Amino acid sequence: MFVLGEGHGWSTLSARMDDAVPESKSASSRTPFFDTLAQTGMRFANFYAPSPRCTPSRATFFTGVSPAQLHMTFIGEGKKESGAVANGRVIPPTAVMELPTSVPTIAELLKRAGYATAHFGKWHLGRANPRAHGFDENDGANSNGGPDNEDNPNPKQLFLTTERSMDFMTRQVQAGKPFYLQLDHYAARRGGAARPESVALAKSWGLDERDLDTAAADWDLDVAFGMLLKKLDELGIAQNTYVIFTTDHGTPGKNPPFAGGKGTVWEGGLRVPFIIRGPGIKAGACSHVRIVGADVLPTMAELAHITVPLSPTIEGGSFATVLANGGAGAVKRPREEYVVHFPHYDKDELGPASALYLGDFKLLRVYETGALKLFNIAKDSGERHDLASEMPDKVKELARRLDEHLKAIHAQMPAPNPNFDPKKPTETTLEKKGKGRKGRP
Q1: pLDDT at 142 over 70
Q2: CB 298 within 8 A of CB 331
């Protein structure tokens, strides 16, 4: 069971994502059922979403292929207010808006292996029914507004999708069939997206108005997740079911202790919670092995004992041995470095950028200016000390690797836009058309 949150940063749960970092949990939200998942499973302190935006990350979770290779690097054709269109001309690149059916998904792999498959909730990978990608049971190709295209699909859809998920699991257990369930939640971090009783409860915690709505929505999310855990217990399959929770990108705004957030390749936009529970996984473990969104498919395939060769386009590697070794080990991928390529004008005043990770180092390339920034993430996770001038040879090495990587996967490159103003509203073209509103990622 793979549960995907929407825009929850590294420090948004009340469970610490890193035992060594007190700030790696929320100071306001309370999520006791996610805490239970952390206590009975393994947390990864260094998990990276494939993109700082939702559609690209989702595409990679399903396929193991990076947004840059898929050319699914944004949620639409661009942002008019922030400079993707200048003087009537679209500033390239133009993102692919429909997940290609030619790219194998985890659902297709598991379906061929005899699994029942289902997807409920936010799809946001185009208009084709998820059935075309291996999900026989689903509630449609829903975007930000849900099946009813509402400003706030939650809390209604939060609990409806949870009920559908529990029904799906019950029927598969009764039929004696293995299953893969993907439950993707909608954004619920604004006013009007939480139940009144949850808002009242959050008020009783003495929170200020800034944190109140978020805490109430997070409480609802936790309650819904608790319903899933309880159903697994009732069905008698909790001990032999893998349960994963993560999210698609960082929170809009601040993501302490990191810099940046949604729409940026700073740590706050990319490093997010990842917790997994299941057979052979050490309870309460906190792994510091770096894992990434493209690793999810090959890991699931190994855990499910899929023996057919995976697509050569997959850029991730399995971390199944890390799970079996109490969180220790390494992940072997086709390329040693890990790259997030975000060639769009969005929420970062720097404009389009790429990030490359290798060992303890992170290189950040800014396309507007050509600047190269270097950080030691192990010592400086807040990215406050740029080492570029102190370590020019390391910058040169990592820049070469970045160029080679992007060339190898035929990544689209940004075109500078002199009219870019990051202080303008961040409404996207798709959001203007009603597919996602009120700050929906």
Answers
A1: yes
A2: no
What is the per-residue pLDDT across 387-435, written as a single tens digit (0 to 9) for each? 999 999 999 999 999 999 999 999 999 977 766 666 664 444 333 333 3
Domain tally for the chain?
2
Residue 439 lies inside a defined structural domain of this protein? no
Same domain, 268 and 364: no
- Can you spell out the DSSP letters for 133-183? GT-SEES-S--TTTTTT-S--TTHHHHHHHHHHHHHHHHHHHHT--EEEEE
Per-residue pLDDT band for 436 (boundaries 50, 70, 90) equals very low
Q: Which of 336, 357, 383 is the last residue of a domain?
A: 336
Same-domain check for residues 12 and 87: yes
Same-domain status, 150 and 290: yes
Burial of 182 (0-12, 13-18, 19+ CB in 10 A): buried
228 membership: H or E segment, kind and range = helix 209-235
CA distance 16 to 435: 34
pLDDT at 441 over 70: no
3-state secondary structure of 271: strand
Domain span at residue 232 reads 2-336
Burial class (CB in 10 A: 0-12, 13-18, 19+), 247: buried
Alpha-carbon distance of 181 to 186, in angstroms, equals: 16
* 29-39 tens-digit pLDDT: 999 999 999 99
User: Has residue 49 got a pLDDT over 70?
Assistant: yes
CB 172 within 8 A of CB 116: yes
pLDDT at residue 298 above 80?
yes
Say how far apart CA 255 and CA 226 lie, in whole Å: 25
How far is the C-alpha of 32 from the C-alpha of 222, rounded, in Å?
7
Among 336, 353, 385, residue at a domain's last position: 336
Angle at the Cα of 375 from the Cα atoms of 285 and 24, rounded to 5 degrees: 35
Q: Which residues contact 16 (CB under 8 A, 6 or more apart)?
A: 22, 24, 25, 38, 43, 286
Q: Which of 13-17, 84-88, 164-168, 375-379 has the lowest mean pLDDT?
A: 84-88
Beta-bridge mates of residue 365: 354, 372
Question: What is the overall mean pLDDT for the chain?
Answer: 91
